[in-house]
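User: Here's a protein and a ligand (thymidine-5'-diphosphate). What would the complex look like?
Assistant: Let me lay out the input and then the predicted complex.
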Amino acid sequence: MFITFEGIDCCGKTTQAKLLIEKLQSLNHSVLFLREPGGTTISEKIREVLLDKKNLKMIQVTELLLFSASRAQLVSEVIKPSLTQNKIVICDRYHDSTTAYQGYGRGLTLGAVKTINRVATTDVLPKKTFFIDITVKEMYDRRTANNQDIDRMEMSNEEFYNRVRNGYHELAKEEPERFVVIDGKQTIEAIHEEIWKMMESLLPMEET
Ligand code: TYD
């Protein structure tokens, strides 16, 4: 079973993915956790190029193709073989990030982005996607509170992030069966409960 986590930066998806994994492992499920971009030797190298603050010359199409190249490698080397072995694969960001960030955020043609997504994923698509939604203001507040170092992507402005967030909402409307939209302002425990309820309902069918 393939599950993804999505949302704008600082939404809490990584924390939630980790909590879900702990829970699944405590019940003896075989789980694999991945993050994008990254997850293979080649994909991690592409990640460095993508997030390096020195790469200010990077044009938007290069960005789109590099995120997609990183994903294509991850799908072929790791995701597909793991799904074949019936593992639960949990990925922190996947193709929806490309639609939201490069398509809606950067303004690249959505049709082209979706075609490239299909090429990169070879139509290996998540069964459920947890979209943890916070406002852009909340994102900035959390960033300030964490006092974290920002990467090249995070140098984008407020309008960009508003478009990205709106993009996620559009995607959730397009695929309401796959998307679970979660209010990211709730407590960590409440969000985990919501995610777990959904996961529990999927597990028996998948595992028998
Ligand atoms: P990362 O440090 O992993 O951030 P996060 O914890 O928010 O996931 O950096 C990934 C950055 O790359 C993040 O700003 C989102 C962006 N991104 C895209 O723009 N397109 C993509 O397809 C993916 C996978 C990520």
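Summary: The two ends are 12 Å apart (CA to CA).
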